[in-house]
Design a protein that fits this description.
It is a single chain. With 156 residues, the protein is mainly beta. It has one domain: Neuraminidase, CATH 2.120.10. 9% of the residues lie in helices and 44% in strands. It is built from two helices and 13 strands. A four-stranded antiparallel beta sheet has the order 3-4-5-6. The chain is globular.
Length: 156
C-alpha cells in the first residue's frame, strides 16, 4: 500500500497503518501523537483519531502535512472512526458510544467547522468500547466493533 508516495507492507491493520503514518518523519508525525484509527476522507485527506489530543486530525495524502484538526469535547477519547460525505462517526471510548458529527456542506474535507448531531442509538453507553466503525453507504447501516463485548453491532 502506498500513501503519499511512501510504500507500506501488506499488513494493513488499522493500528499498524496509523503507526506507520505517524513514523514517516513528516509534519503529520509531529502533530499526531497517539493515533488509533484512520479513515479515508474526501479531498485527498486521511482522517486520524488521536487520543492524546482528543481530536480528529486531517492529513493530506500527498504531503502528509496536517490540513486541519477537530477537537472533541472534554469527555472525548476517540478510537473508532469512519467518514461519509455528510458525517463523521467517532467511536468515543470514554462515553462508550459512537458520536455522529455533521460536516459543513456534507464535506469533511473543508475544515474544522464540524457540529455534533447525535449519539448513535440516541443514548450514551451503546457500546462498551467502540474500537472500529464502518458505514455501508448504500444501506446506511453503521457497523461498530465493540471491543468490550467482542461483537459487531449494527445500527441505522
Amino acid at each position: 500500500m502506498s500513501i503519499g508516495g511512501r510504500s507500506f507492507g501488506s499488513r494493513v491493520g488499522g493500528a499498524a497503518l496509523v503507526c506507520a503514518l505517524a513514523l514517516v518523519g513528516s509534519v503529520a508525525a509531529q502533530t499526531v501523537q497517539n493515533p488509533r484509527r484512520i479513515a479515508a476522507g474526501p479531498n485527498e485527506l486521511i482522517l486520524v483519531a488521536d487520543r492524546r489530543h482528543r481530536a480528529i486530525i486531517a492529513v493530506d495524502q500527498e504531503t502528509l502535512e496536517t490540513a486541519w484538526s477537530f477537537a472533541l469535547p472534554d469527555e472525548g477519547a476517540p478510537f473508532g472512526l469512519a467518514a461519509t460525505g455528510r458525517y463523521l462517526y467517532i467511536g468515543n471510548t470514554k462515553t462508550m458510544n459512537v458520536e455522529v458529527y455533521r460536516t459543513p456542506h456534507g464535506n469533511p474535507g473543508s475544515g474544522p467547522d464540524i457540529k455534533f448531531e447525535y449519539n448513535l442509538g440516541h443514548t450514551t453507553g451503546l457500546v462498551g468500547n467502540p474500537i472500529a466503525i464502518d458505514v455501508d453507504r448504500k444501506s446506511r447501516r453503521v457497523f461498530v466493533l465493540d471491543g468490550a463485548d467482542k461483537q459487531v453491532n449494527v445500527a441505522r
